[in-house]
């Protein structure tokens, strides 16, 4: 299934996220992630939507999003037209000395950063493309490390 | 008026006045009491409906018949939710409308207070835009924006939800001054682009497609009327000589009695119109949205043909059919560019196609009256004969709607009002109440089923002395559903036979002169009486019970498989 990235700029009005997500739900678009935040322009939010489907679906989604009065612009951007990142925080239990070594190795392989440690609990942060994050989570699952939880931020993107 | 103080309720009503609103369709309740308290101070007439759904339909009827923007108002909770069907209906038919609701005090919002509903949330999918008013000083800007949004671009309903505390809060002095002076308020709509324009290359593409076509066909719809492009359509059709057909909402967009006007298309379209659609090699969809009721089976509809699509809403392009040329913008701007560019003798090229369409039109004429029997068709035919050119008809939903749509060819637009997209039973009577403010005679036609969905509005008609001519075509069935049960469910008539009240007594109980016709002679005499009556009048026509609407395209079938009657299909090339 193809993934498409939509970059939306909207007025930061009450209900704008609800309008957007409701619209995408009722038109039966498949949304993988949606992130929102402020921009350098006061009162304007930027949203990054990742959806799956064929390219015509992405164009249709952009078309209906554009109809929203709060929306200033919407663009379907190709991977090579934007810079994008996602954050993962993984919470890992360290059961042994061997685990420590594996963790250090895994972290080194994919440039993860330890951001919290108390007792045998460790939190690791990774900022990269979604693909790299998938790889990291897959790799870590193959080791003896016990992953207690993880959270992903969804993609944020800026057009090049 | 030095230092005059206005509260939110006054600001609302004065702003409505400033927008040219002279009447609103409304029903009182706890969360709009401050607005009602202020009403006598302002020149906004209230029409007291008996159910909020009727307020929404009356507001729509007003918009549809007058080109203005109808306004409805309801209290919070059930008042607001009762508006929902009428708002959804306006959204699907792109009707400009302002719905105003009261809500509970701001400090109670979210607490499940008495008669609290999240009407903004409920209406999210069925409005063009909505507002929850958080500051009384925002109200003038919001009302200005709401009217602008409702009417411009692709029109639609706008909801304004006003908590009760805002209605009683005093506005700032400078805001009050501006409102009282009828000054304009600046809008803040940076994301709203309603002035779209089409690229010249799409116009040129369209011209090339028309000139290289052999069997072109125009399907026009509501967009022509909403864009006030009736004259531009006429110019195009007359110069190009392209045969034409229309959607339910296209009725009156062009003189439907012209030779090359083949009739309405779609599920109950004429044989000639559906033949032409099926066999065309180029379709010009002018202000239509290729809805399933007109396309029938979509893959067959699209087969062997190209499409030029005219619409103001870019998201309509390629939604249901892939288009070869997309002409975006107001039709009254875009169509003349094409009319101008096509050569003078374009129409000659289509001679054999025109002849073929005309032959089919003559061959597959619509059902006629049955001599001696009172049928819905006979009443509709007679009404069409005696109606004035300016008269407006509102229909409900079902068989009578389709029979009327097949047979009404008003010379002007905004004369045939129907609930097209949502298909709401109960539309006719309340929308007729709103349409009456056009100043023209209004005939409301309903079946016995749909009439009872809003029959309480007879009280409104009586109290507000709305001069409607109310026709009930009583076949003692939910006719269209019964027809489907007959044709596709082996006559398993579950819950379609209706045991009805005495409609004449019902009308009389509301103080409205009411009569019954059981024969064609009585029917014709009573239609004349209706025409001659100035005030409200109601006539029940006891019509044949089990008539079917033909032509018909069964659901899932192609237009090329149109049934002319139970046995016979149209033929195709």
Structural write-up:
The complex is a heterodimer of chains A (160) and B (573). Chain A is of the alpha+beta class and 160 residues long. Chain A folds into two domains: 3-77, ACT domain (Alpha-Beta Plaits, 2-Layer Sandwich), CATH 3.30.70; 83-159, 2-Layer Sandwich (Alpha-Beta Plaits). Helices cover 31% and strands 44% of the residues of chain A. Chain A contains four helices and nine strands. Chain A has helices spanning 16-26, 55-66, 97-110, 130-142, and strands at 3-11, 30-38, 44-52, 71-77, 82-93, 113-118, 121-128, 146-152, 156-159. In chain A, the strands form two sheets. In chain A, strands 5, 6, 7, 8 and 9 form a five-stranded antiparallel beta sheet that branches. Chain A has a four-stranded antiparallel beta sheet with strand order 2-3-1-4, with helices on one face. The longest helix of chain A has 14 residues, at 97-110. The two termini of chain A are 24 Å apart. The model of chain A has no long low-confidence stretch (mean pLDDT 91). Chain B is of the alpha/beta class and 573 residues long. Chain B has three domains: 8-180, Rossmann fold (3-Layer(aba) Sandwich), CATH 3.40.50; 200-363, Rossmann fold; 376-542, Thiamin diphosphate (ThDP)-binding fold, Pyr/PP domains (Rossmann fold). In chain B, 39% of the residues lie in helices and 15% in strands. A six-stranded parallel beta sheet of chain B has the order 2-1-3-4-6-5, with helices on both faces. Chain B has a six-stranded parallel beta sheet with strand order 9-8-7-10-11-12, with helices on both faces. In chain B, strands 14-13-15-16-18-17 form a six-stranded parallel beta sheet, with helices on both faces. In chain B, α1 packs parallel to α6, α18 packs across α19 and α18 runs parallel beside α25 (520-532). The radius of gyration of chain B is 25 Å and the shape is globular. The mean pLDDT of chain B is 96. Chain A binds chain B through residues 10-11, 14-15, 18-19, 22-23, 26, 56, 59-60, 63-64, 66-73, and chain B through 120-121, 124-125, 128-130, 132, 134, 149, 189-192, 313-315, 317-319.
């Amino acid at each position: 299934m193809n993934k498409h990235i939509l970059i939306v700029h909207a007025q930061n009005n009450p209900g704008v996220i609800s309008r957007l997500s409701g619209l995408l739900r009722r038109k039966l678009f498949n949304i993988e992630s949606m992130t929102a935040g402020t921009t350098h322009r006061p009162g304007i939010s930027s949203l990054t939507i990742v959806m799956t489907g064929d390219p015509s679906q992405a164009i249709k989604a952009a078309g209906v999003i554009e109809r929203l009065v709060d929306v200033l612009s919407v663009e379907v951007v190709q991977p090579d037209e934007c810079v994008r990142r996602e954050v993962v925080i993984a919470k890992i239990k360290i059961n042994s000395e061997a685990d420590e070594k594996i963790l250090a190795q895994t972290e080194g392989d994919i440039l993860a950063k330890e951001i919290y440690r108390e007792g045998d609990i460790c939190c690791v942060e990774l900022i990269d493309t979604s693909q790299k994050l998938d790889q990291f989570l897959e790799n870590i699952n193959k080791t003896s490390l016990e992953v207690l939880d993880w959270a992903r931020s969804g993609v944020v993107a800026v057009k090049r | 008026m030095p230092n005059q103080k206005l509260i939110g309720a006054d600001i609302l009503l004065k702003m409505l006045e400033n927008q040219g609103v002279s009447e609103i369709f409304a029903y009182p309740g706890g969360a709009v009491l401050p607005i009602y308290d202020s009403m006598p101070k302002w020149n906004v007439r209230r029409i007291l409906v008996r159910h909020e759904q009727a307020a929404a339909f009356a507001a729509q009827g007003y918009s549809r018949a007058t080109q203005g923007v109808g306004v409805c108002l309801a209290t919070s909770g059930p008042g607001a939710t009762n508006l929902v069907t009428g708002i959804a209906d306006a959204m699907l038919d792109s009707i400009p409308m302002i719905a105003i609701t009261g809500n509970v005090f701001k400090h109670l919002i979210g607490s499940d207070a008495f008669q609290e509903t999240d009407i903004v949330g409920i209406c999210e999918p069925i409005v063009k835009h909505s507002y929850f008013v958080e500051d009384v000083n925002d109200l003038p800007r919001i009302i200005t924006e709401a009217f602008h949004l409702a009417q411009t671009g692709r029109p639609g309903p706008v909801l304004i939800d006003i908590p009760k505390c805002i209605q009683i809060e005093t506005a700032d002095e400078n805001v009050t001054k501006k409102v009282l002076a009828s000054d304009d308020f600046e809008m803040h709509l940076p994301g709203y682009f309603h002035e779209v324009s089409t690229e010249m290359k799409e116009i040129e593409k369209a011209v090339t497609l028309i000139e290289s076509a052999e069997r072109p066909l125009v399907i026009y719809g509501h967009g022509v009327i909403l864009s006030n492009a009736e004259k531009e359509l006429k110019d195009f059709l007359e110069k190009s000589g392209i045969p034409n057909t229309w959607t339910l909402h296209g009725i009156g967009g062009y003189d439907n009695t012209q030779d090359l006007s083949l009739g309405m298309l779609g599920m109950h379209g004429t044989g000639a119109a559906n033949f032409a659609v099926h066999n065309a090699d180029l379709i010009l969809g002018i202000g239509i949205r290729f809805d399933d009721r007109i396309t029938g089976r979509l893959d067959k509809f699209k087969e062997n043909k190209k499409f030029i699509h005219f619409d103001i809403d870019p998201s309509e392009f390629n939604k249901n059919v892939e288009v070869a040329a997309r002409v975006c913008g107001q039709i009254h701007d875009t169509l003349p560019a094409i009319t101008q560019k096509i050569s003078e003798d374009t129409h000659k090229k289509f001679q054999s196609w025109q002849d073929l369409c005309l032959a089919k039109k003559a061959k597959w004429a619509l059902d006629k009256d049955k001599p001696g029997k009172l049928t819905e068709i006979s009443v509709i035919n007679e009404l069409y004969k005696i109606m004035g050119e300016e008269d407006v008809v509102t229909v409900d939903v079902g068989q009578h709607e389709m029979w009327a749509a097949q047979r009404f060819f008003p010379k002007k637009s905004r004369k045939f009002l129907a609930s097209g997209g949502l298909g709401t039973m109960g539309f006719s009577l309340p929308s007729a109440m709103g349409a009456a403010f056009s100043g023209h005679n209004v005939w409301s036609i309903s079946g016995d089923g749909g009439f009872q969905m809003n029959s309480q509005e007879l009280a409104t008609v009586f109290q507000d002395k709305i001069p409607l001519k109310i026709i009930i075509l009583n076949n003692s069935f939910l006719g269209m559903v019964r027809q489907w049960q007959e044709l596709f469910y082996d006559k398993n008539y579950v819950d379609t036979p209706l045991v009805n009240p005495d409609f004449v007594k019902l009308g009389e109980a509301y103080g409205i002169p009411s009569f019954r016709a059981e024969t064609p002679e009585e029917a014709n005499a009573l239609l004349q009486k209706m025409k001659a009556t100035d005030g409200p009048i109601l006539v029940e026509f006891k019509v044949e019970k089990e008539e079917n609407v033909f032509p018909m395209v069964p659901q899932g079938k192609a237009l090329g498989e149109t049934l002319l009657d139970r046995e016979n299909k149209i033929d195709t090339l």
